């Protein structure tokens, strides 16, 4: 199909650029290094880590995974983070969330060094995304959406852009990143009255609700750019997005598939952030 926004293609192009940057750093004796910290076992986190380790390896980034016990106390967790903040060999730290309930995200988010916070956990980086200030790290998933738009030359300037979802991981930061590029933003959520009326106005429609195939053909404007951030599994265990792809793709101008869309770009964006962190620290 000619209207597919292919995440794998975007990730591959970015990977080639990043490999050159890593080669240059390694020639200077600097090995960009990411630390991934996970507390307890979670199947979704394990799958994410596997993908991130593989992608970082292909690019030449060293990746260390610290697996901590499920019953780790908050203070012990903070000690680990402080040690990694001080470790000059580590340039980026990614903390897998959600954390177990004895560890408060609202407490520990202040402890990760903003300079190493490659997935925007520390409020200093969140504030930079909100204000549009340069020099911080935006969360990887909304950054992956922006990479796709840039790769395909889709300029959000002035466009009616509707985002379904207002989470701190996707919807909210993405709205700010698009606003920085002068999109005209509407954010929809569970309390939105007449969602279809809002979405069908969109020239760029972004679904990040986590509701399987909720975006139907009659909710999409003919020719719209449709970006599907959702990762859901149908009754047969097949991965699918928030958009009913079979129904919507003939009407959409351009559309990301699931899998092979936004999710295919996220770990490469993480690698990009580690390299940026490494350059800032070296
Ligand atoms: P979340 O549950 O924290 O937030 C979902 C948001 O969608 C909420 O703001 C809610 O108000 C809104 N919403 C839910 N149902 C709705 C409905 N029926 N109508 C309108 N709004 C509705 O989820 P999240 O962490 O933001 O993730 C969203 C989706 O993106 C999930 O499917 C998740 O798996 C996926 N995700 C993908 C990646 C990736 O790399 N592609 C990364 C993170 C999350």
UniProtKB/TrEMBL annotation:
Keywords: Amino-acid biosynthesis, Histidine biosynthesis, Hydrolase, Methionine biosynthesis, Multifunctional enzyme, NADP, One-carbon metabolism, Oxidoreductase, Purine biosynthesis
EC number: 1.5.1.5, 3.5.4.9
CDD domains (UniProt xref): NAD_bind_m-THF_DH_Cyclohyd
GO-annotated biological processes: L-histidine biosynthetic process; methionine biosynthetic process; purine nucleotide biosynthetic process; tetrahydrofolate interconversion
Reactions this protein catalyses: (6R)-5,10-methenyltetrahydrofolate + H2O = (6R)-10-formyltetrahydrofolate + H(+); (6R)-5,10-methylene-5,6,7,8-tetrahydrofolate + NADP(+) = (6R)-5,10-methenyltetrahydrofolate + NADPH
Any GO MF annotation of the entry: methylenetetrahydrofolate dehydrogenase (NADP+) activity
One Pfam family of this chain: THF_DHG_CYH_C
Source organism, top-level taxon: Bacteria
Binding-site residues for NADP(+), renumbered to this chain: 165-167, 231
Tetrahydrofolate dehydrogenase/cyclohydrolase catalytic domain span: 5-119
GO cellular component: a single term: cytosol
InterPro entries listed in its UniProt record: Aminoacid_DH-like_N_sf, NAD(P)-bd_dom_sf, THF_DH/CycHdrlase, THF_DH/CycHdrlase_cat_dom, THF_DH/CycHdrlase_NAD-bd_dom
Pathway assigned in UniProt: One-carbon metabolism; tetrahydrofolate interconversion
Residues in Tetrahydrofolate dehydrogenase/cyclohydrolase NAD(P)-binding domain copies: 139-281
Family statement: Belongs to the tetrahydrofolate dehydrogenase/cyclohydrolase family.
Subunit structure: Homodimer.
HAMAP family, A to Z: THF_DHG_CYH
Known function: Catalyzes the oxidation of 5,10-methylenetetrahydrofolate to 5,10-methenyltetrahydrofolate and then the hydrolysis of 5,10-methenyltetrahydrofolate to 10-formyltetrahydrofolate.
Stated name of the protein: Bifunctional protein FolD
Source organism of this protein record: Calorimonas adulescens
